[in-house]
Input
Amino acid sequence: MSERDYNGEPGCRTLAELSKSFRHYWDPTAYWQCSKEQAQAAQLKRCPANELYYDKAQRCVAWKDWQWTEPQEPPTKPRK
Output
């Protein structure tokens, strides 16, 4: 996967990533969720209707409360 095609999926390999969610780069209604166990693949999750994932709040918020932020790379990326 080229850097240009990268969607923000975390590798979920560090303790800092466990049980955390990460922004999907292209789809504000989606986000990545790491499980409580290291090296488990991140799960793609969707926000409820009329909500967008807001990385600063680490949760889905009403679309009127959402603000665009610069994407931040997660600590690790998946091994492909």
User: Anything to note?
Assistant: The radius of gyration is 12 Å.
